[in-house]
Specification:
With about 140 residues, the chain is an all-beta fold. It has one domain (about 1-140): Methylamine Dehydrogenase, Chain H (7 Propeller). Helices cover about 0% and strands about 50% of the residues. Strands 5-6-7-8-12 form a five-stranded mixed sheet, with no helix packed on it. Strands 1-2-3-4 form a four-stranded antiparallel sheet, with no helix packed on it. Strands 9-10-11 form a three-stranded antiparallel sheet, with no helix packed on it. A hairpin with a 4-residue loop joins strand 10 (about 115-120) and strand 11 (about 125).
C-alpha cells in the first residue's frame, strides 16, 4: 500500500488535509481529515506502489505502479460548500525499461521541476514544466 498527504486551500484562510491511498485495488482513494472517503480515482491497470504530491502545487499527485507506469493527476480542490472533487489524469509516463518494475518510490524536485522514479535497479527522471491534459504516453 502507498500513502501520501497534502493540504489544500478550500477558501482564503481555510485549509483541509487530504490523504491519498493506493494499492492492490488499482485505484487511488482520497480521504478528508475525518477519514471520509470522497473520491476513487481510476486509471492504473496494475497495483499502485508509490504516491507523492507536488509541494508547490498541492493538488498535483504522482502515482507509480508495479509495471513501470507513472501517472500525473490533478485532484482538484473542493469548495467549502461541496466536498466533491473532480480529478483529471494529466499525463501517463513510462519508465523505458519495463523489466525494472515496480516504481518503488517517487520524488518531485520542485526547484528543478524533475520527477524521479526509483525502480528495482535504476532511476528515471522526467522534466515536467507544464501540467496539461495529455492523451499520449511520454517516455524519458
Amino acid at each position: 500500500m502507498a500513502l501520501a498527504w497534502t493540504t489544500l486551500e478550500v477558501e482564503p484562510g481555510k485549509r483541509i488535509n487530504i490523504l491519498a491511498a493506493g494499492g492492490k485495488l488499482k485505484e487511488i482513494r482520497l480521504f478528508y481529515e475525518n477519514n471520509e472517503n470522497y473520491c476513487d480515482m481510476k486509471g492504473h491497470q496494475e497495483d499502485i506502489a508509490s504516491l507523492t504530491f507536488n509541494s508547490t502545487y498541492p493538488q498535483i499527485l504522482f502515482s507509480g505502479d508495479v509495471r513501470a507506469s507513472v501517472f500525473v493527476w490533478d485532484i482538484g480542490s473542493p469548495t467549502n460548500q461541496s466536498r466533491l472533487m473532480r480529478y483529471q489524469l494529466l499525463m501517463r509516463l513510462r519508465c523505458p525499461r519495463l523489466d525494472l518494475n515496480p516504481v518503488m518510490n517517487l520524488v518531485y524536485l520542485d526547484h528543478y521541476s524533475y520527477l524521479i522514479a526509483g525502480c528495482d535497479d535504476a532511476m528515471f527522471a522526467w522534466k515536467i514544466t507544464e501540467y496539461r491534459n495529455e492523451k499520449r504516453e511520454r517516455s524519458v
